User: Which sequence fits this backbone?
C-alpha cells in the first residue's frame, strides 16, 4: 500500500461572500502529524470545513487532492469514504439515533454492500476503543451527542476517528474546553492511530495538546494563509512570544477586518 | 340555510336484521337506531383546515365476517408477525374483517375477574356492565361519524379490569381487513377500575385487496381512581381506506393514562384524540407519531381537558411529511376554571421532507384558571442541514443520512410500545414510509 498523500494548493475560501482563506498551501503524507496554529479568526477552521465540504463554505479557487483525487469534485460523504475525517469543534446532536447504530452505518457505508462488518466484531472493536478513551459503556446506546458534555462530545469525535480509520484526520480545536484528563485520553486515542497510513492535522490555539501529541510540523496561519512553518520548537516559541511577537518578527499587520470562523 | 345531506346507503330494517342475527339486547339495538336517526340528521365534523366533504365515510360493506381459527398459523402472516415471540401472544384477541377469529386470555387473569372479549360477545354476555360505559366518554350525537359508529358497529373489543388487579403482561388486540370494499366499524371499551393497572396495545392492518373501504373507530378508555392505563396503537390501513378514529379517555382522581400512538395509515385520516382529566391529580401523557405520504390528507386533533385540581398533561406530537401529503395538527389544552395547580404542556414538531408536502401545526391553549402552568411549542421545518452534514462527513450517503435523522426523530414513540412485535411493526412501517 502506498503512503497516502493530501495536497492543498492555493486554497481560497469565502463564507457568505467574505473572503477568509487567501491562498493556503499544505502537503501532508501518511505518518505525519501537522499542527496548524494561529490567532482567532485567521481561517484555520474554515480550511477544515472547506476540505470536508460544509455547504456554507465556498471554495473560490485552488485545489485539494487526496491520493490524486480532487476533493472538490466530491460530495461530503464521498470525501469521507475517500479517507477524509474532520473532528468537529461543534458536533451536531442527532436525537433518536444511537451512537452504535450511527457508527455501524458509517462503517458499513465505507465497506460497501455485501461487505458489512460482522456485528460481534463491531461490538468488540467499539468496546475496546471506548475503554481506551475511558468512555462508559452506556455511550454506545446513547443518542448521538445528545446531552453530552463538551468533553464527552470531543471524546466521541475521537471514538469515531478510531472506528472509521481514515487516511487523513483534521482535529478542529479538539482541545478546547477539555480538562487535563480528557486531553490525555484524546491524545492517547490519536497516538494509537499513528502509522504511515494515517496523517493528522491538528488545529489548536495552544501548545498544550502538542505536549501529548508530538507534531512533525508546526504551521502558523495568519490572515488566511500559512506564514511560517517549522518543527515542534515553533510551537514552543509561539507559546513564549505570543502571536504579537510572531507578527512583529514576520512584519505582519492585521487585516482591517478579521472574521470569526 | 338548509344543509344538503347525502342519503345514507343503509336503513333501519337492514340494521334491525343485522342486530337480530347477532342476538343483541334491546338497549343495544335501540342505540343503533338512535345512531341511525342522528346519522341522517347530523353533518360531518368540521376539522380545521381539512376539507373532508368528498371523503368516502359511508360507502362500504359492514356485513362481512370471517370464521374462527383454532391456531395462529392459520392467520395471514402480517398478523402472525405481530406476535412472533410466544409469550406475548398470551392475552390476545384477533379480528379479521370485523369478527373475532382467535382469542386467548390467561387463566390467571380470568380467575381475577378480567374480561377480555370482542364487542359482539360482550354485548350478549356482559350486557349490563358494558351498558354502563358504552358511549360514556363521547356522545353518539357528536357528529355524523360518531352516530354512524353507533348505528353500524360490527367489531370492537371490551376489556374490563376489576378493582386492584394489576396486569403486568400487555394485552393485545389486532384488527385485519381483507374483504373487498369492507368497512370496519369498531367500538372499543377499556375499563380500568380503581387502583388497577393495564397495558393495552392495538394494531389495525389491511390488505390492498380491500380496495376502497372505510374504518370508523371509536375507542373509549375509562381510568378509575388511582388506576393506570398504558394504551398503545399502531394504525396501518392501506391507501384507499378512509379512516375516522376517535380515542377518548376519562381519568378519575389520581388516575393516569399514557397514549402511545403510531398513526401510519396510507389513506385519508381524521383523528380525534381526547383526554378528560376529571379527577384531582389525574395525569395524561400523550405521544403520537405519523408520516404523511403519497397524496393522503390527514387531520389530527389532540385535546386535553383539565378539570380536576393539580392535573397534569404532556403532549408530544412528531410527524414527517413526504411527497404531496397534507396534514393538519391541532393540539388543544383546555384548563377549566377550578383546575388550580394544573400543568399542561404540549409540543408539536413537523418535519417536511418534500417541497410539495404541507404540514400545519396549531397550538391552542385555553385557560380559565390563574394558578396553573401551561406551555406550548410548535414547529414545522426541514431536516437540519448541520445534522445532515455531520452524518455525511462520516461517509453516510445523503439518502441514508436523511432516513436516519427522520427515524430518530420519530423514535420516542416507538420506544414506548410495550410489545416487541408491535414495536417492530411500527419500526418497519416508519422505515417503509420514510424510505
Assistant:
Amino acid at each position: 500500500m502506498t503512503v497516502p498523500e493530501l495536497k492543498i494548493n492555493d486554497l481560497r475560501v469565502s463564507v457568505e461572500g467574505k473572503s477568509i482563506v487567501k491562498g493556503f498551501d499544505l502537503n501532508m503524507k501518511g505518518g505525519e502529524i501537522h499542527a496548524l496554529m494561529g490567532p482567532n479568526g485567521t481561517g484555520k477552521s474554515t480550511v477544515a470545513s472547506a476540505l470536508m465540504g460544509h455547504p456554507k463554505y465556498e471554495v473560490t479557487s485552488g485545489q485539494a487532492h487526496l491520493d490524486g483525487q480532487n476533493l472538490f469534485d466530491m460530495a461530503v460523504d464521498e470525501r469521507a469514504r475517500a479517507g477524509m475525517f474532520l473532528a468537529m469543534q461543534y458536533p451536531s446532536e442527532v436525537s433518536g439515533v444511537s451512537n452504535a447504530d450511527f457508527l455501524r452505518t458509517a462503517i458499513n457505508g465505507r465497506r460497501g454492500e455485501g461487505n458489512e462488518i460482522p456485528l460481534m466484531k463491531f461490538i468488540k472493536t467499539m468496546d475496546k476503543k471506548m475503554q481506551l478513551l475511558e468512555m462508559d459503556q452506556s455511550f454506545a446506546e446513547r443518542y448521538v451527542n445528545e446531552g453530552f458534555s463538551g468533553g464527552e462530545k470531543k471524546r466521541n469525535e475521537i471514538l469515531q476517528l478510531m472506528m472509521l480509520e481514515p487516511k487523513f484526520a483534521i482535529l478542529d480545536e479538539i482541545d478546547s474546553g477539555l480538562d487535563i484528563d480528557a486531553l490525555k485520553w484524546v491524545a492517547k486515542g490519536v497516538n494509537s492511530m499513528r502509522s504511515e497510513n494515517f496523517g493528522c492535522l491538528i488545529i489548536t490555539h495552544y501548545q498544550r495538546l502538542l505536549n501529548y501529541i508530538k507534531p512533525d510540523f508546526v504551521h502558523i496561519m495568519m490572515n488566511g494563509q500559512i506564514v511560517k512553518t517549522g518543527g515542534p520548537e515553533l510551537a514552543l516559541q509561539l507559546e513564549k512570544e505570543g502571536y504579537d511577537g510572531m507578527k512583529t518578527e514576520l512584519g505582519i499587520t492585521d487585516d482591517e477586518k478579521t472574521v470569526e470562523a | 340555510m338548509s344543509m344538503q345531506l347525502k342519503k345514507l346507503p343503509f336503513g333501519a330494517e337492514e340494521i334491525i336484521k343485522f342486530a337480530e342475527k347477532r342476538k343483541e339486547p334491546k338497549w343495544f339495538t335501540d342505540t343503533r337506531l338512535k345512531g341511525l336517526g342522528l346519522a341522517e340528521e347530523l353533518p360531518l365534523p368540521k376539522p380545521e383546515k381539512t376539507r373532508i366533504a368528498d371523503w368516502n365515510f359511508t360507502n362500504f360493506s359492514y356485513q362481512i365476517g370471517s370464521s374462527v381459527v383454532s391456531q395462529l398459523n392459520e392467520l395471514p402472516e402480517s398478523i402472525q408477525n405481530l406476535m412472533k415471540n410466544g409469550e406475548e401472544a398470551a392475552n390476545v384477541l384477533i379480528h379479521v374483517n370485523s369478527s373475532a377469529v382467535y382469542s386467548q386470555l390467561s387463566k390467571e387473569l380470568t380467575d381475577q375477574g378480567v374480561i377480555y372479549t370482542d364487542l359482539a360477545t360482550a354485548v350478549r354476555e356482559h350486557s349490563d356492565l358494558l351498558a354502563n360505559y358504552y358511549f360514556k366518554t363521547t356522545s353518539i350525537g357528536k357528529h355524523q361519524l360518531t352516530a354512524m359508529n353507533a348505528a353500524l358497529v360490527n367489531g370492537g373489543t371490551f376489556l374490563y379490569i376489576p378493582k386492584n388487579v394489576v396486569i403486568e403482561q400487555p394485552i393485545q388486540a389486532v384488527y385485519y381487513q381483507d374483504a373487498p370494499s369492507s368497512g370496519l366499524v369498531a367500538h372499543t371499551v377499556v375499563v380500568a377500575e380503581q387502583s388497577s393497572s393495564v397495558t393495552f396495545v392495538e394494531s389495525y392492518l389491511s390488505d390492498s385487496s380491500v380496495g376502497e373501504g372505510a374504518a370508523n373507530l371509536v375507542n373509549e378508555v375509562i381510568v378509575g381512581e388511582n388506576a393506570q392505563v398504558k394504551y398503545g396503537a399502531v394504525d396501518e390501513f392501506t391507501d384507499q381506506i378512509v379512516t375516522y378514529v376517535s380515542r377518548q379517555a376519562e381519568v378519575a382522581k389520581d388516575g393516569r393514562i399514557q397514549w402511545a400512538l403510531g398513526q401510519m395509515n396510507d389513506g385519508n385520516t381524521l383523528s380525534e384524540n381526547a383526554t378528560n382529566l376529571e379527577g384531582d391529580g389525574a395525569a395524561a401523557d400523550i405521544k403520537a407519531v405519523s408520516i404523511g405520504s403519497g397524496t393522503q390528507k390527514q387531520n389530527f386533533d389532540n385535546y386535553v381537558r383539565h378539570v380536576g385540581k393539580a392535573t397534569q398533561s404532556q403532549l408530544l406530537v412528531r410527524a414527517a411529511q413526504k411527497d404531496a401529503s397534507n396534514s393538519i395538527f391541532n393540539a388543544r389544552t383546555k384548563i377549566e376554571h377550578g383546575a388550580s395547580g394544573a400543568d399542561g404542556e404540549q409540543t408539536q414538531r413537523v418535519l417536511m421532507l418534500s417541497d410539495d408536502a404541507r404540514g400545519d401545526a396549531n397550538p391552542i391553549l385555553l385557560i380559565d384558571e390563574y394558578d396553573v402552568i401551561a406551555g406550548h411549542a410548535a414547529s414545522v421545518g426541514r431536516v437540519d442541514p448541520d445534522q445532515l452534514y455531520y452524518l455525511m462527513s462520516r461517509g453516510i450517503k445523503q439518502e441514508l443520512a436523511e432516513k436516519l435523522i427522520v427515524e430518530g426523530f420519530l423514535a420516542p414513540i416507538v420506544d414506548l410500545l410495550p410489545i416487541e412485535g408491535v414495536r417492530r411493526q411500527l419500526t418497519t412501517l416508519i422505515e417503509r414510509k420514510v424510505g
Summary: Confidence is low (pLDDT under 50) at residues 256-261 of chain A.
